[in-house]
Every structure is written in structure tokens, then in C-alpha cells.
Specification:
single chain; alpha/beta; Rossmann fold; 13 helices; 14 strands
């Protein structure tokens, strides 16, 4: 009997079931709650990721920090799905700066109330039980840097010299290095698939002046009505005959054609543009017969420097402030003299005074000499020798790369050196406002505006005698982007000296090449300060300025000054400096030679690539 009792197992199932029911119920409770908890956690993570990306876009559009945080919360709540927003606490941490990208961190704490787990926990616990569970989740995204780069490249005559340590011309070395830079940044930019135009380049060749493109002659930011205070400074309109007057009807207003001699052209506005159109040459066949009037020259695309302070900044051009408009270069015909630097038209006045002859305006309408058309950089286009600016172009497309590299390859060395104008126009190509509007908004976060300035020599402006010419008119310089060094009133220093230590008074001692260089250096440094705000970054437009000296000799006084100027102008690296002291760290300045120019441009590409964090 005892043995039968031991073998009787009919009640074991109930006993075992009773023993097993507790962990079985616990497993079910944990399983159900875990599944629901996992779903809510995943919903929270998905909402965090979506909100992070959406908030980044809002920041790039210029939203304030407060607006961005409110937007992040709203977008997060909308994407939580079945999870109740009031059960989730959200903390939003935004970037602390508006340049150089930045990290957005979103942290969420989800309060989850289990369905089955609390009763089970009470069943097995004799102490107090907390129903709610907390789950932490995070998402971070990097503002993807976009970059806009202006290549401000020296095209002066000395760029045809051989580079030190190389058997090649400096201009050819520069073309190769610049093209390499474009290729390297274009390749990294192609990673940023979700960002429009992540890497853009403009090309600004400069010599004695900058060519902004003849196709821009009719743009509203050009002085198309001749109201800038510098527009008529080289023309004496009182020399016109009685039946062909050119008059200013209101102080500061345009000049108009007045009189019967103008025919259908009467009442037309007179500007340098119309003067280019009105100048005609008599073109005849080989026998001197069948002569017809043909154009002598068309505007080459170069502009004069704006009056100070607008030559050193990016103030938007406006007809309400005529000094901000851009004036086409027009090199006056100087006195008929074989030793004059720019004598290209026949004078029609009997005066023997060289300045009178130079300013005699009627000659451009009265004489039709049998001459050939003006060549590039000749006649009224004197000192206009470079190819035109190439505006910002997206180089993440093959077409964009080809456009920028073609512009680099088209550069040819010729003329003097005006680095201040090159820098100013490099800045303007990056601007979001006229004259070139291709740049992103200056308030957009995660975008870097970079100007790379390369030059192989000191700033130059020349007295006629230093080039072997006479100066019977007393201009004190050859004509270029600042006009003449002395105004045609014969007693006032020109714009090249505006707001410099050399002043604006007429002093015979000031008219010398070294002083012209010193004045241009001051103009350059003023532009640098306006563009990048100096060492502290507390003012200025916040541009990153990189400067490259090519083959400059530190043992020469002029080169020493240029090296110092370029180093002073350069911004500091964001990666090789103390964030607590912006006056320390490596300057973005390179003293290159022809032999290592390619390596220097690789270092520049590395710096710019570091600025663009992609994650």
C-alpha cells in the first residue's frame, strides 16, 4: 500500500501548477509590459531623431534659440505616436555659436506605467512598490557645415615669373594648386546628400583692378545714371559746344544731353557707359575709302574703388546713397604726348595745358580718328586686364567643377597689384546681398564664408615717372581703380589716401610709390577688420580669411611689410587655438614658395574639411 501511495501522481500536476503559476504570471507580466515599454521607448527615439533633424533645419533657416526649442517640443510631441506627450520630459540643448556647425542634443525621460507588473510585484513583495518606471533616451545631430569659398588670386604681371624651387611659372603653379583644392572639397561635399549646395566656390582674379563682368552694366547696383560723386571727376562738360551741352539739372543729379546738336539723343542721361557707346572711330578700307563709323571700345567690366569707407566693406549699393554704387572704369585720354602713359584719342582743343586737354570732354564726340579698335586693357579700359569674376558656383556637380576650374585656367598675368580691391570683391561674392547675391544668409548657422587671398608681391600704384612716362597733367599716378592719385583740380589728393595715415592733403612729398603701397596696405587692413572682426571676432562680418604669400623675400623691406600685412589679416584656426583666448593659436597664413604651393593648398583644404563635420 505504501508503495502504491508513493507511485500515485494524480495530484502532482495541481501542486506543480500552483508552484509554477507565480513565475509564469510574472513572465507574462514582464513580457507584456516589456513589449509595451519597448514600443514607447522606440516611439520616443523615433520622435527624438525626427525632431533633431527638423530643429536643425529650423536653426539653419535662422530661428532664434527660443523658437527652435519650442519647435523641437512641438515636432517631438507630434511624432510620438500612441505615447502620451505629458508622460515625456524633453530637454533641448542647442549649439552655442552660429558658425562652424554645432551639435544639437535632445534628451527625453519617459515615464512608463506598467499594466501587469505592479500587481505581480505586490504579490511577491512585502514592502512598498513604485508603479512607474523611467526610461531615458537621447538623440544628437550635427549641423552639417556648408562652406562658401572665394578664391582671390593675384593675376599681376609678376605671376609670370618662375616660382622659387620650381621650373614653372607662378601662375601655372597657382592654377594647379587651386584646381586641386576645388577637387578635394568637391569630393567631400558630395557626402552631404541632404544639403543644397554644400560647397561653393567663387573666383576673383585681381591685378590693378577687379573685373566684375561687362554683362552687369545694366544692374541696379551699377551707377547707370552717373550720380556717384566720382563718376564725372575726369570730365569737364563745360567744354561742350553751345548746341551740344551736357548739363546737370539738379545738384547731385544726373547729367543730360541738351541742345539741337544732339538730335534724337537730346535729353538722354550722360554716363561713362553712354560715353563708351558714343565714341566712334572712322574705319576705312585699305585705300582710305568707304569709311564708316565703328565702335572704338566697349566697357571691359572693371570698376573703380568706391569712396571710403565703402571701398572697405560690403554696404549694399543704393541710389539713395550714390557713393555706394559701382562706377565703371574709364581711363581718360591724356594729353597728346608720345611720353604720356595713356594717350589714345585725338585732342580737339587749342589749349596747351595738359590737364585742360585731358579733361576736354568734347573730344570724345568731335573726333573720329582713323584708328583701330582699342585692345583689351587699352584706351578707356586701361588697367582692366583680368578675366571677370566667377560668382559662387556649386562644385558638388560636375558642371560646377568644370565652371570653376575653367575660370581658374583662364587667368593670365598682367598689370599691377591691388590686393585691397581683390579682398573686398571676394567678400562681396560671398554676400547674400547685391552685387552678388549667391551667398547664404549671414545669419544662417552651420555655414562658413571663407576668403583665400594669394599674392606674390606688394600692393602697387605707380607714378608715371617710375614707369618711364611724363606727367605733364600732374595726375601724380597712372590711372587705375582709385582713379588718379591727385584729383584733376590739381590740389587735392585722391581716394587712394582716404582715411589713411598719409591723409588727403595735397603734399608733393606724399606722391611716391612707397606711399601708395603704404596707403593701400592700410585700406587692406581696414577691409580685413570689417570682414573678420579682428582677433576677438567681436565685430565684423565673421568671415574666415586665409592668406598666402607666394615667393616673398623677408629680407626685402617691401616684402616684409606685405608679409606682416597678410599675417595680420589672417583669421585664426578654429582647431589650433585656445577657445578661451582667441588671440592665441595658429594663424591661417602661409608663406609659400613655388616648390611647396601645392602642399599649402592641401593644408588649406584640410582646414576647410575640418570645418565641415558630417555625421
Amino acid at each position: 500500500m505504501f508503495r502504491r501511495f508513493l507511485k500515485d501522481v494524480r495530484g502532482n500536476y495541481a501542486i506543480l501548477t500552483g508552484i509554477a503559476i507565480v513565475p509564469m504570471l510574472g513572465a507574462v507580466a514582464v513580457g507584456v509590459d516589456y513589449a509595451e515599454m519597448s514600443r514607447q521607448r522606440q516611439d520616443t527615439l523615433n520622435a527624438l531623431d525626427a525632431s533633431c533633424i527638423a530643429t536643425a533645419r529650423r536653426i539653419l533657416e535662422g530661428a532664434t534659440d527660443n523658437d527652435a526649442k519650442l519647435y523641437a517640443r512641438k515636432f517631438f510631441d507630434t511624432n510620438l505616436g500612441a505615447t502620451t506627450p505629458d508622460k515625456v520630459a524633453l530637454d533641448v540643448q542647442l549649439p552655442t555659436n552660429n558658425v562652424g556647425g554645432g551639435r544639437i542634443q535632445l534628451d527625453a525621460t519617459l515615464t512608463y506605467t506598467p499594466h501587469f507588473l505592479p500587481p505581480f510585484r505586490r504579490l511577491i513583495s512585502s514592502g512598498p512598490v513604485t508603479d512607474d518606471l523611467t526610461i531615458d533616451a537621447s538623440s544628437a545631430c550635427q549641423l552639417k557645415n556648408t562652406v562658401e569659398v572665394a578664391l582671390v588670386l593675384d593675376n599681376s604681371g609678376s605671376m609670370s615669373d618662375k616660382g622659387k624651387g620650381s621650373g614653372k611659372k607662378r601662375i601655372d603653379l597657382l592654377k594647379s594648386a587651386a584646381a586641386q583644392l576645388v577637387d578635394q572639397l568637391a569630393a567631400t561635399g558630395q557626402i552631404m546628400k541632404q544639403v543644397e549646395k554644400p560647397v561653393q566656390f567663387s573666383v576673383v582674379p585681381f591685378a590693378a583692378s577687379v573685373n566684375i563682368g561687362a554683362a552687369n552694366a545694366t544692374e541696379s547696383w551699377m551707377d547707370t545714371t552717373g550720380i556717384s560723386p566720382i563718376h564725372h571727376e575726369n570730365f569737364d562738360w563745360t567744354t561742350m559746344p553751345a548746341n551740344m551741352q551736357i548739363k546737370q539739372l539738379a545738384t547731385g543729379g544726373p547729367y543730360y544731353k541738351k541742345g539741337t546738336g544732339w538730335g534724337a539723343a537730346e535729353n538722354q542721361v550722360v554716363t561713362r557707359f553712354t560715353l563708351f557707346d558714343d565714341m566712334k572711330r572712322s574705319a576705312c578700307d585699305k585705300r582710305g575709302n568707304n569709311c564708316t563709323l565703328q565702335p572704338y571700345a566697349s566697357w571691359g567690366g572693371c570698376v573703380e574703388s568706391r569712396p571710403y569707407p565703402y571701398n572697405t566693406d560690403d554696404t549694399a549699393p543704393s541710389a539713395s546713397n550714390p557713393s555706394t554704387l559701382y562706377v565703371p572704369m574709364f581711363g581718360p585720354d591724356e594729353a597728346d604726348n608720345s611720353s604720356a602713359e595713356n594717350s589714345w584719342w585725338t585732342d580737339t582743343t587749342s589749349s596747351s595745358n595738359a590737364m585742360t586737354k585731358q579733361r576736354y570732354a568734347y573730344k570724345y564726340y568731335a573726333s573720329n580718328p582713323r584708328i583701330s579698335a582699342a585692345g583689351t586693357g587699352d584706351g578707356p579700359n586701361a588697367s582692366c586686364t583680368t578675366t571677370a569674376i566667377t560668382p559662387l558656383t556649386d562644385v558638388t556637380t560636375s558642371a560646377g567643377v568644370e565652371t570653376v576650374k575653367a575660370a581658374i585656367n583662364a587667368m593670365q598675368p598682367n598689370g599691377a597689384t591691388n590686393v585691397p580691391e581683390g579682398l573686398a570683391w571676394g567678400w562681396r561674392t560671398l554676400s547674400s546681398q547685391a552685387p552678388f547675391t549667391g551667398g547664404r544668409s549671414e545669419t544662417e548657422r552651420g555655414n562658413d564664408k571663407v576668403v583665400i587671398v594669394l599674392t606674390d608681391g606688394a600692393n602697387t600704384y605707380y607714378t608715371p615717372s617710375s614707369l618711364g612716362y611724363s606727367d605733364s597733367a600732374g595726375n601724380k599716378s597712372t590711372y587705375s581703380a582709385y582713379g588718379y592719385a591727385r584729383l584733376n583740380d590739381g590740389s587735392t589728393a585722391g581716394r587712394i589716401f582716404s582715411s589713411t595715415a598719409l591723409g588727403s592733403g595735397d603734399d608733393s612729398n606724399v606722391y611716391a610709390n612707397d606711399n601708395y603701397t603704404a596707403a593701400m596696405n592700410e585700406q587692406f587692413l581696414a577691409t580685413c577688420k570689417n570682414a573678420n572682426g579682428g582677433e576677438t571676432g567681436s565685430a565684423g562680418a565673421g568671415l574666415i580669411i586665409m592668406t598666402v604669400a607666394l615667393d616673398l623675400d623677408s629680407t626685402k623691406s617691401a616684402d616684409q611689410k606685405q608679409l606682416s600685412m597678410l599675417q595680420t589679416c589672417a583669421s585664426r584656426s578654429r582647431y589650433a587655438r585656445d577657445p578661451n583666448d582667441l588671440t592665441k593659436g595658429r594663424k591661417l597664413f602661409w608663406n609659400a614658395t613655388g616648390a611647396n604651393l601645392s602642399q599649402v593648398f592641401k593644408e588649406i583644404a584640410d582646414e576647410l574639411s575640418n570645418l565641415r563635420i558630417v555625421s
